Every structure is written in structure tokens, then in C-alpha cells.
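Structure, all four chains, one model.
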Amino acid sequence: MNLRELSDLLGLSQTTVSRALNGYPEVKEATRKRVTEAANAHNYHPNTRAKSLATGRTMSIGHVIPLSSQHEMVNCVFSDFIAGAGESYARHGYDMRVSVVDDLKEADAYKTLATTGKVDGVIVHGPLVNDERIPLLVQLGLPFVVHGRSSDCTTPYSWLDVNNISAFKRATDFLLDLGHKRVALINGLETMDFAMRRREGYANALADRDIPLDAALTYSSEMTEPFGYAKTCEMLDAAEPPTAIITSSLIPALGVRRAVEERGLTIGKDVSIICFDDALSYLPNGAGSPIFTAARSSVRDAGRRCGEMLMDQIEGRTSGPVHELWEAELVVGQSTGPAPNR
Amino acid sequence: MNLRELSDLLGLSQTTVSRALNGYPEVKEATRKRVTEAANAHNYHPNTRAKSLATGRTMSIGHVIPLSSQHEMVNCVFSDFIAGAGESYARHGYDMRVSVVDDLKEADAYKTLATTGKVDGVIVHGPLVNDERIPLLVQLGLPFVVHGRSSDCTTPYSWLDVNNISAFKRATDFLLDLGHKRVALINGLETMDFAMRRREGYANALADRDIPLDAALTYSSEMTEPFGYAKTCEMLDAAEPPTAIITSSLIPALGVRRAVEERGLTIGKDVSIICFDDALSYLPNGAGSPIFTAARSSVRDAGRRCGEMLMDQIEGRTSGPVHELWEAELVVGQSTGPAPNR
DNA sequence: AATCATTTCCAAAGCGCTTTGAATTGCGAT
DNA sequence: ATCGCAATTCAAAGCGCTTTGGAAATGATT
């Protein structure tokens, strides 16, 4: 059943039927009722492809996820983010178009998305410190919102970010206040903007108390469990082990825990741990009271909000770039305690 | 730049240009060359929306993910699966359309997808024991492939599944061979087909040795870390604790580990653990040698293959339903050992 | 040089919807 | 009855592509 058939059936023009269905005012309420009823009765649904062509809109938002050996975009965090974004999309009749691309062809992917009109806008994931995707998208004229920020980028653009500097400053301060002297940082890849900022927050806290940075206590890589484990092993087996460790995600914190417990040490006593917790739905930081003391900010909420910001932009409800900086909350769990006295 | 502009520019008809660009034979090689060069020079890309309408194909595959409090589809496993599927799609010029829907409206989502022509086919995730989505999709005439199976479903359909019965039978046998008498199962939701089959494999192994099922040793729920932790605590603190535990995923196994170590017990000595390992890229079961002894099958590979099966079906390279049953491999890690003698 | 089969190209008809600009209808006011 | 204005409805023109059915050009064959 298509529009022509339906309108023939009703003895009305396609125009009227289309308007009736799309809620335009220039159609009598009685006819609108007749039309919607007939549409329901015959299970009429407008063809999306035709609608797209006619309106020039696809009602879909692009997410391009680069695939490489180097850097894993497709991770836990990503899936919770899109769950949130997807919720927002659904509420507004959009859905999400995900393209997986070789990371060397990422720029091309955005170009194609824009020039072929596959999507009405895109979300940019995992911005680097100086991310060339941003000027590219501006130039392409494709609406977009960045989840995170790109520090060295001068072009104005919309973003939503967690205040990573403040979160890691506070986390570090929290440990220093507990008397810890040697606080380690197991960070994400520092080409990523968020990781760079987290290190900055950590470094600021140390600098405030005139504690020198120790290269033997800071590491940066893909945030996996084995990475957390391996680096913790190294550090604990070295001459001057840290008494506290901060990780950029719950996942490496699991590895830290494994390494600590394997050595017969107690978490929260011998070694304190704080992690950044994205509040992933299927990897909760404990049920009820948190296992790890953590700087917490829901990535799912971020997804929801980014989606809304982008749709607002697409539909012209906002004009210029919009920024949102969220503070993480510092939740105290069982993984931190006063520094052990030697 | 659209097709008409390009053809005007070249002094050719739209027909010829279109054919030249799409590799049809009825165009001289010289003209084809001229056309492709002009297309590149002017950065011409055919409009996807128009193409869709004309061809009746969207070159996209739908994934509908139900959102509910009850059951979390959007999980780690899902994201690795779509990474794999996405890779296959990209290779064939497809991409993925993800709709997040309220789980009560899931059936509607499939209907809409089919009748509005938003996608060329869908992948069905997380089939239940008796999943009504399958007959619905057959009736709608929308091509689909199921990741997993639905036992009580009589309609024929294409699927790719891991041999869960065999995997859990072998895992249980492995533990029984090591002398374990009390083997616990921490399973996923048993309305899910895979979980039901895993329990069956577990039960078969016990039955083979005339060991009665003990309700105090089997649990079934959402596969989270806290769930693994909580149930392990219960069991270890009870009168007759198990000496081995099998979990349906790496995630609850982490909780099991936490509970075991918290009690000063040693994994692989006091308590053995086997888990099902989906070989998630960002949550690897150790680097190098596996931490947990595990039944392993890559969900990413499954995604890749499901994508290919579906595109084969859409493009008519296969006719009837296709089935693939993958055997998981049992990899021995550090989490299992002989049963402790009391 | 005429004939016929190929090759190569084109005009025009969709695909199913939205939207413009105009035509028709209804109805109170003249 | 008639006019004027608003409320309804409609015919037709796109949106940018593919594809059908033919026409024109080319080349091989007699």
C-alpha cells in the first residue's frame, strides 16, 4: 500500500492525504480522521526511501567507528554511549547509522557521509588532542557534536565533555589527603584528548604539593585489564612501589586488583585504587556500595545528551556551537584508605 | 554536483553516465574512462537517497536493540558483534542501521523496518527459547539471520550459533575429570536460548556420572560482575561450598574471582573457575596465556560471518536457510586445577 | 554498396513521497 | 442571489537516481 493507492481508495489527492498524515493544518479534521483511520486499517506506512528523497532528510545520525590494530574504538564505553544516544534518537524518530571503517579511511568516510547525504549529522567519538575531523566536518557543512573535546582545535564546534582535569585533580588530591606519597597513574592513550587532560589534572595535583612527577609511576596505553595488571606488577615489584594507583577506567582497575591481590596485598589498605567509572550498565562498579572509589560520570547519559544536542542543531533549535562540561562525581568505595605507614 | 549536471558537462545522457559509473557493459571503455575521470575531478557522489528510491535497496542492515530494565541487550558482547558485522558490511558497501526501541515495541520496530523499507535485512540478537520475532520476520518477508537459535521455533530460518551444549558439557567434564564433585553454574538468563542450552550441557555432564543437580549450585540472571560476586559469596559461605564454578561469561567470572580472593582462597587450587569467553577485544582473557580456563568462541568472528550470511541471502547467493554451528575451543588457563582433598 | 548484427548511446518513464501554486468549496455578509 | 474571504482540496512539478525500449552509430558480411 503506497500513498497513491491510499488516496485513490479515499477519493482524495495525494497532497491531502500526505498533509493529513503529517499533521498539516490545511486539512479538515473530519478528513484527517478519515485518512488516519484508513491508513491504520490498511497498514499504510510511508516509504522511508521516497520520503528521504523528497524531504532531503534521512532521519538518521551517523557514527563512524574506525577499526584498527592501534586503537580500539569499539569498546564497552562505545556501546553504552550509543545505547544512550539511541534512546534520544528513538524519541525523536531518528535512528543511528553506524559505519565501520578502516581508520586510515576515516576522513573519506565522513566525506562520503556528507556528499552522498546518508545522514543528517554525525557524532564524533574519541577526539584526539588535535583532531582533524573537526575542521573537516565544519568544511563539509555536516552538523556534528563531539563527545569530548579537541584541545588544539581552533574552529568552533559543539561538544559535551566531562571535566577530566578537575576529576583527576580531585581524585589525586583525595589520595594525597589520605597521606599517600607515591600515587601512580594508569592512563588511556595520551593522544586522546581525554587522557591528556586526565594526566594534566593528576599533574596539577602533584604540582600543588611540590611532588615531582615520576615517570616510573605513569603509564599510558589502551585501557585493558592486562595492561592494568602488567603495569601494576611492574610497579609493585620495583624498588619504591606506589601506595595508590589511579586508572582511567574500571577495566584496567580490574587488572590492578588482580595484581595487588595476587601479591597477597590488601586493596584499600596496602594499595589504594581510584578509577574513572563510566557507569557502564553491564559492568557496574559494585551493586549498592561501590567497589572502587571512583570519579563517576555516566557515558550513557552523555550519549543521550549528545544525541539531543545534535538533533537540536539539525532541526535549527540552536544556532551557534553549544558546550557542556560535566563534573564527574567522586564516589567513595572500599578501594581507598589511608596510606600505610612504613 | 548531481548526475544531470555531470552528464550535461560531459555532453552525455544521464543513462550513459550512470551506466559508466556503475560498471555496466553497454558503454565504451573510452567513454567510461572519460566519465569516471570527470566524476573524480568534480567530486561527484551519487545521492544515496535517490539511489535507494530508484533501486529499492538501502544498502543497510538493521539491528534492533530493545531497551528495558529487564534485560540488557546493549552490552559488551553486542558491541563486539557489531564491530565484526560492521567490518563485513563495509567490505560490501553496506552499513548498519541501529534502532534502539522500548522492548515492548520490538515487534513494531521490525514491522516498521520492513514496511517502510528502511533496511534490506536484519540480524536478530539474543534469541529466546521460543522467539516470536522469527515467525514475524518470515511473515514480513524481511531477510534475516539469527545470531544464536530459538529451540522451540518450527519455522525454518538461517542462524549461526555456538554449540553451547557441547561447550558446557566439555567444560563440566573437564572439571569432573579433575575430581571436582560440586560444580556450580552461574548462567545467563535462561529465557535466552543460549543459556538454556548451556544449562543443558552442564546437566548432561552431571547426568552422565549420576551426579544429581543441586539447585543451590545453579543460578541464572543478567551476567554482571556483581551477580557473579554475590552468588559466589552465598555459595562459599554455605554449608557445602562448590570447589568449581562455571560462568556463562567472563564478566561474572570477575565477580567470582573477587569473592574467592576476598575469602583468602586461591583460584585454581581451592576453587576452580571456567567461564565462557566471547573473546572480546577490549576485555581479553589475559595477555598471552589465559587467566581463566575457558570455552572460547569469538563473538566478533560470529558478527563477521552473520553479516556475510545475511548479505549472501539478500543478494540471492543462497536460497534456503543456512545454518552454522561453531564449536567453542576449550582453552586451559590458570584458573583450574585438581579438586582439593578435604 | 546494401544488409544485418553489434555496440553505443539516449529520451523518457518510473521509484513514492513532499510541496508549490492554483482551483474549488463553504459560508457569513452584502 | 452575489460577493469576498477563508478553509479545503487538488494537479503537477520536483527530489536524483535507475532502467526500459529504442534509436543511432559502427563494423562485419555478403
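The two ends of chain A are 80 Å apart (CA to CA).
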